[in-house]
Design brief:
Elements: H1 2-14, H2 29-36, H3 44-53, H4 60-69, H5 75-84, H6 91-94, H7 100-108, H8 110-122, H9 124-140, E1 150-154, E2 158-162, E3 167-172, H10 175-178, E4 193-199, E5 213-215, E6 220-223, E7 226-227, H11 265-274
Helix pairs in contact: 2-9, 4-7, 8-9
Length: about 290
Amino acid sequence: MRILKFILIFAMLATVPAFAQAPPPNFPPERLDQLVARIALYPDPLVAQILAGATYPDQIPDAAKWADQHHYLTGKALADAIQGDQLPWDPSVQALLPFPSVLEMMASDMGWTTDLGNAFLAQQQDVMDAIQRERRKARDFGYLRTNGQIVVGGGPYITILPVNPDYVVVPYYDPAVVFFAPRPGFFVGGAIRFGFGVPLGVFFRPWGWGFNHFDWGGHAVFINNARWGRTWFNRGEYAHPYAGIHRWGPGERVPERHDLHERSERERSAAREGRRAPEEHRGGHDRR
């Protein structure tokens, strides 16, 4: 009888859905500061999208591969390819496809990406506070300031917005430098660099671009103008609203459309010849 009871209990535990698991232990503030350090100085809309996409870490590696394979596309051609390939990933992950270097960073360090996503699921307010702490350090040490690519807001909460909302530039910086007091003679103006940007425009409105922002005081993140409500406890069924984005389920893919890994060489050549943006503005070359 005792053995039978043990078997029944074990069977019940084995059938508990993964999404019913207890949340991970809370990350302490110093660990959260480390987690957000590499993205804290990105523009607000991009930070919001990275946090949302990180809650689907299992989808990041394939998305990074797709973005790399299609790095030669930009603007409408890229948006059409994303829609045409009927990609199975959540729209929050698809929204990062114009940023190959960001997805590459996330895919190359899945431990960091998973921890960041879990922290955002279980400790959203704490994650936002950590971003503000890091930004305050970079601002107070003189590294973070308004320039030709970003506007830094200096109110009670530090905001970072692109000068052109439809053109997002990914900053490059060393977290081991910009969050610490500069040594004597160090040129703080060169610590945060801005290279290639990503033109988004109206073509990426369906994925929320142009409508992503933080309510720092209210500890809320808005993606596609709707408050992001995915948490550790509802992550199995939560579906954030995206107008015009179909979530493709199993068996829904149309075989006649070009596949994820099998775009013909003729299509690739045509895209390279006819749709390639100028080198300094190619979204696929925002990589480090």
